[in-house]
Each structure stands twice: as C-alpha cells, then as structure tokens.
Design a protein that fits this description.
alpha/beta; Rossmann fold; ProC C-terminal domain-like fold; 2 domains; about 50% helix; elongated
C-alpha cells in the first residue's frame, strides 16, 4: 500500500502520533500498528476507528508484515531495542520506505548501520503532549533522505503538534527542553501544591489550584505570538506579591537550577548514545 504508515511498537508515544494522524483525517485503512498482546491489538483497532493492529503473540513476524509495503515506518520501541528492530525489518523494506525513529539517544548513524545501505532515515524527538495534539516534534534527516521524504515525514507528525527541523547535533538539547520539559511543568505543579499545603491549604484544594493554574498558563502560552517573559511581566506588579515570589526565585537561583537540569539531561542522552553504540 503506497500510502501506508506502520507503527512498530505502539506505546504511549507512537499511539499519540497515530491518534493525531487519525484525528487529522488520515484513512485508518492506511495505518497498521504492531503490539505484543492480542488484547492490546483489539483495543487499538476499536479506539482508532478500525486501524489494522497485529499482535506478536499471534503473528511472530508482525513487524515484518507491517513494514512490507509501507511508505513510512515509525519505530516506537525503547532505545535499547531500536537497532534490533531495524535489523529485523530490513528485508521487508522498500528502498524508498522512510524509517523514522522516535527513540531518544539513538543516532542516525546507529540506525543507518542497522538498515540496508541507502535507506532513508529520520530521527525524531516527540513529547507527551502529542497525545492531545499539542506536542512538539523535532525531525532530523539522515544522509539518504530527500527533501520530499522529509516533508512526507513532517506531514505524518503534524496531527500530533508543532514540527520543527533541527540538525542532529541539537537533538539532545531539544530532548532536554521539550522532550523532558513536560516533566518539568508537572514537577512545578507538584511543588506548588506542596507549598499550598505548607501554607495551610487542604491537600485536594492545593493540587486543584496548582493543576489548573499550570494548565491555564500553558493555554496562554499557546496563543499565537505569546512570549513567556511578557506574560510573566504582565502579572508581576511592582512591589506586589508576585514580584516578591519571583525575586525569591531569582535569589535562590531557580533559572540556573533549570539550566543545570537541562544540561544534565543533555549529558545523559549523549551517554546513552555512547552505551548503545
């Protein structure tokens, strides 16, 4: 099937991208997914309007079946399994099939080495808000990927959110900001809720306030042209309560702490790449 898109492994990230495709109008008949369990396959087919889902416990060669005849193949297993999966499906790929990895820390060179020579390859870095169509997905093209093939891959991801093209050497930095970033926002909400309890609020009320505040602020940031600094200044009145809090954050070195965390995430991604290599 010339336009078929195969999702090999359908955990939370690949399912989020798949869901975005279906919601954007892609014919479910053009989508195939592989999973381990038959129960999970049936669940996916029902949830996503009749896509084809093949369970490994029933069809041991499900990955090869899905890859054969597909225009785009998206590898969605854990990083440690990406190269083995690439080798497994190699004989089923057309020379023009675009192979996309959504696994962190697996380099283009590592992926290309596990595939037939000349295979078009793209490395991507999505994040979890893709589940809601509000993700950020970076794409980095391999040496055998044409501009037309890169555009085709971008179109696959658009239903899941904003797509940005970056050189591969920046992928670890992207991962540290947008890939891990949702956890930073959740961590902030968690800390805000704990602070509310410390100040005497009921725990359920405190988590509600923190959750809805962070979610609402995120919606404001999603407005076209929104600037975080401008939004912050708009609610930071001179000599007011918010200014007192922001000043304390600065005194405690919060911006530097966030930068240090991002640097640690970047370093860890590079370390995993070396381990996989």
């Amino acid at each position: 099937m010339r336009n078929r898109i195969a999702f090999l492994g359908c955990g939370s990230m690949n399912e989020a991208i798949l869901s975005g495709l279906v919601n954007a109008g892609t014919d479910p008949a053009d989508i195939v997914a592989t999973v381990r369990r038959a129960e999970r396959a049936a669940e996916l087919a029902v949830r996503h309007h009749g896509i084809t889902a093949i369970a490994g416990e029933e069809e041991p060669d499900n990955n090869k079946q899905a890859a054969k005849g597909s225009a785009v193949v998206i590898l969605g297993v854990k990083p440690v399994g990406i190269q083995d999966l690439a080798r497994e499906i190699s004989s089923s790929l057309s020379p023009t099939t675009i192979v996309v990895s959504v696994a962190a820390a697996v380099s283009l060179a590592q992926l290309e080495a596990a595939l037939p020579a000349g295979q078009p390859v793209i490395r991507s870095m999505p994040n979890t808000p893709a589940k809601l169509g509000r993700g950020v997905i970076s794409v980095s093209a391999g040496s055998n990927c044409t501009p037309e093939q890169l555009k085709q891959a971008k179109d696959v991801f658009r239903g899941a959110g904003t797509v940005v093209e970056v050189p591969e050497e920046q992928v670890d930095a992207v991962s540290a900001i947008s890939g891990s970033g949702p956890a930073y926002a959740f961590y902030l909400a968690e800390a805000m809720a704990a602070a509310g309890v410390e100040l005497g609020l009921d725990p359920e009320l405190s988590i509600l306030l923190a959750r809805e505040t962070v979610a609402g602020a995120g919606l404001m940031l999603a407005e076209p042209g929104a600037d975080p600094a401008a939004l912050r200044k708009a609610v930071t009145s001179p000599k007011g309560t918010t200014e007192a809090a922001i000043a304390t954050f600065d005194e405690q070195g919060l911006p530097a702490i966030i930068t240090a965390g991002a640097r640690a995430a970047t370093a860890r991604a590079a370390e995993i790449t070396r381990q996989l290599g």
